[in-house]
Amino acid sequence: MDFLVGVELQDSFVLGCNYCNQTSGIELEFSIWPESEYYKTPKVGEYTCYHLGSLLFDNVSSITGLLNQSDIQPTLDPDGSKDYRNIEYF
Fold this sequence. Notes:
The protein has strands at residues 13-20, 23-32, 49-57, 75-76, 82-83. By secondary structure, the chain is mostly beta strands. The protein has one domain (2-83).
């Protein structure tokens, strides 16, 4: 999984999740660090750069222990955007 080199999942934010046709997807704002080929200079006020993306899991037959998105109260960021905390919480 070379695409995760330089990606800090513990610092990435969950924006949503879904399950359809045996595919589970988690939309994230990925925390990208200099080791990643996707790294760019952080925006003013950020300590690393962030990119929107998804983790997709194909051929999923069942899911256990994952909270439903509707059961989680999103956090409201100062800019008005919502997220569901980091992936460890979700």
